[in-house]
Each structure stands twice: as C-alpha cells, then as structure tokens.
Fold each of these.
Amino acid sequence: MRYDKKIIFVKREEGKYNPDLGEYEDDKDVETVKRANVTDLGIDRSVALFGSVEEGAKVVRMLRHYKNEWDFILIDGKKYEPTKKRDLRLREGFVVQEVVNDG
C-alpha cells in the first residue's frame, strides 16, 4: 500500500482581539501537510456505513496517528469532513465525506 497522496489537515482558529495592534484579527486556517493512502469508498461499504451510496466519500489511511485537532481535510483542493474514524495500534484510518456546499 502506497502512502503517496498529499493531504492537508486544517484547523480553523477564530480571530481574536490583538491588544498590541488595537484591533481584531481575522479567522485563520492552520494547515499541516501529511502523506496518506487515499481511496474511494466502495459501494458495499458506503451502503453499510451510510445506508445509501454516498458520492464523494473517501477512505484515508495513515502510517502514523495524527494527534493534533483538525476541522477538515483538503484532498486535491476539495474539502472533506470526518465521518468515521478507526485507530489501530500504529496506523490510523478514517472515512471522510466531501463538503459540497460550504456556505
């Protein structure tokens, strides 16, 4: 199994008041790039997890656990949110769902 896909974990930090500047700072995204094995979620597994076929769902597998908090993942410029997570002793895997309308 190859861990050749670049994924970006994103943690959104809310803006806060900066007393040195005397103004509020905007929200910002903190990004961390990692390598993972990313595959499409199969039809059988999609039905088992969601009860229907979900378009845009992917399985992400990593060699090591990512211990920092994150809000969403970017894969090929598309935003994905976590659906299911499974921690193994050394590896980590999770299912993510594409965010279609981010309004």
Note: The chain has a mean pLDDT of 84.
Amino acid sequence: MKALKIRKKLSDYIQNVDEEKLKVIYTLLENDIEDKSSISLERYNKDLEGAEEEFKNGEYISHIEMTKRVKQW
C-alpha cells in the first residue's frame, strides 16, 4: 500500500476514534519515535511516575473490564 493511501486511511480512522484508542495510538507513535534499543533512566522514571499518578486518579481499566472490551473487538 502506498504511503499516501495509508496516510488517508489513518487520517480517516483517527477522525472517528474514541479518546481511549487515540491515547493508545499516540503512545505507540511516541514510543516508536524514540530510540528502540534503550530507554533512559529518566524516561523510565517519568513513565512510572505518570502511571502511578493515573492510577491514583482512578484512570485505569481493570483486567476483567479489559478482557470484556477485547472480546468486543
């Protein structure tokens, strides 16, 4: 598939995707841009702190809920 066609499909998809999936897409793209061979200690700690903050704020999905969602895909 040519790059232009892929960009069009991604653009169409992103316009209609819900916020949760959009965050996942962003995270995947963000991680792909970084050096894949290693992660700095600072980045690792920053990611952990962010995850802990989200957890404290109730911004997480239980394993049971995620299993239900996956079955709907």
Note: Residues 41-56 form the longest helix (16 residues).
Amino acid sequence: MQLFAKTNYKRSDKLMGTLDSLNNIMGKDTVFIAAQGVERSWHTLSQKCSPAFTTNWNDLPIVK
C-alpha cells in the first residue's frame, strides 16, 4: 500500500455505508475497522467455572 496513492472514494463510501448499515441492524460497533483497536469491555466469568477439575488421572471417573 502506498501512502500517497489515489483513493477510490466511491468504493470507500460504499464500504463505510455497508459498515454503518450492519452496525445499525446488529448493534453499535458490531463491525469495525481493525485500526480502531479492540478494547474489551467484557470479561470472562471465571467464578462461574466448575470447581470439579482434576490434575490427577486417577481422580477421573470411569464410564462403563
């Protein structure tokens, strides 16, 4: 990509219109340009994970 290359504004406007339409239908910032960056406003709910984990093969249940 060249810094001072000619820009096809018709194509760019069509792309931006498509992104705007998708975001209007699906919700704000559903689709965005990667240059905007990604800020996670959500976190995994680790307190909801099962405490029934094991690190010992002998503790695993046997299914017959």
Note: The first helix runs from residue 9 to 26.
